[in-house]
């Protein structure tokens, strides 16, 4: 049996931009996606802590070290600049592998930078 489990999570980042007139996606600082083992074009789920919205889109790599978390296209309607979001990616695994898997959890600081 194959199940879907949490692969990685970027916990409580601040939305820095919202660009409605864009094709779609979320642009995320390359440091954050690298730390979370998320790749460009990977599907992610986003949860907005401020308004409860939950939505899915795909990732675009943002400038390394910029702290960028930019909602593009229609997703720009689901959060405002300054909102706190959680970004999650999932993977499909066999049940036995999933029982042993430990997701990657990234906890950035209030400026969306990695804590060292």
Automatic annotation (TrEMBL):
InterPro entries for the chain: Asp_de-COase-like_dom_sf, Asp_decarbox
Binding site for substrate: 57, 73-75
Name by which UniProt lists this protein: Aspartate 1-decarboxylase
Catalytic activity: L-aspartate + H(+) = beta-alanine + CO2
Enzyme Commission no: 4.1.1.11
Residue stretches spanning the membrane: none
Main location: cytoplasm
Co-factor requirement: pyruvate
Residues annotated as catalytic: 25 (schiff-base intermediate with substrate), 58 (proton donor)
Annotated pathway: Cofactor biosynthesis; (R)-pantothenate biosynthesis; beta-alanine from L-aspartate: step 1/1
NCBIfam families, A to Z: panD
Short name of one Pfam family: Asp_decarbox
GO molecular function terms attached to this record: aspartate 1-decarboxylase activity
Subunit (UniProt): Heterooctamer of four alpha and four beta subunits.
